[in-house]
């Protein structure tokens, strides 16, 4: 909360940018997608 309060008020009221929203969508999609056997073995 301290870090957020350090930002100027004008910066806090901006809408989210397209790149942030696209990154959020892609990370969420990767999190909820099923992993195949090969992907599980590569992580080890």
Q: What value does the average pLDDT take? A: 79
Question: How many extended strands?
Answer: 0
Uncertain segments are none
Q: Which value, in Å, is the CA radius of gyration?
A: 17 Å
The secondary structure category is mainly alpha
**If helices are DSSP runs of H or I spanning 4 or more residues, what is the number of helices?**
4
Topology as a string of helices (H) and strands (E): HHHH
In helices, the fraction of residues equals: over 70%
Mind summarizing the main beta sheet? none
Describe the protein's architecture and organization:
- With 44 residues, the protein is mainly alpha-helical.
- It is built from four helices and no strands.
- It is elongated, with a radius of gyration of 17 Å.
- The relative contact order is 0.08.
Describe how the helices and strands are arranged:
Blueprint: H1 2-6, H2 9-12, H3 18-32, H4 37-43
Please give a quick description of this structure.
By secondary structure, the chain is an all-alpha fold. Helices cover 70% and strands 0% of the residues.
Relevant terms:
mainly alpha, 4 helices, elongated, 44 residues
């Amino acid at each position: 909360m301290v870090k957020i309060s350090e930002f100027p008020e004008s910066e806090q009221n901006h809408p989210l940018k397209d790149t942030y929203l696209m990154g959020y969508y892609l990370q969420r999609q990767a999190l909820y997608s099923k992993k195949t056997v090969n992907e599980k073995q590569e992580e080890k």
